[in-house]
Amino acid sequence: MDGIVASIINNWDPIDLFPCSPIDEYQLEIMLINKSLKESKEVEHLANDINEIFTRRFGDDVFTRGYNECFDIAFKILEELEKANK
CA–CA separation, 58 vs 50, rounded Å? Predict the structure, then answer.
């Protein structure tokens, strides 16, 4: 699970930190998303949590991605996790 979430979040790069930042720049946020996944596998719940995690960690002046983009990322994470569990 960690690897899938890390890959998707790092590829998304929601704060546009790469390539100037270390690859583990989003490690705390990835950990919080993994914790959220243990609580619920509902896409809306995960999307809300992703939005909240990044807004809280970086502020809404830096994290400017909207809920719809967080929903797309949540859907992608859940889809990849489902594929990995088959």
Answer: 12
Extract the tokens encoding 38: 């243990």
Tell which residue, 85, 61, 82, 72, has the closest CA to residue 8.
72
> pLDDT per residue over 6-57, tens digit each?
999 999 999 988 787 888 889 999 999 999 999 989 999 999 999 999 999 9
Buried residues in 7-30 as b, exposed as e (16+ CB within 10 A): ebbbebebbeeeeeeeeebbeebb
> Which domains are seen in the chain, by residue range?
2-15+24-84 (1.10.340)
Backbone angles phi, psi at 12, to 5 degrees: -65, -40
Burial class (CB in 10 A: 0-12, 13-18, 19+), 37: buried
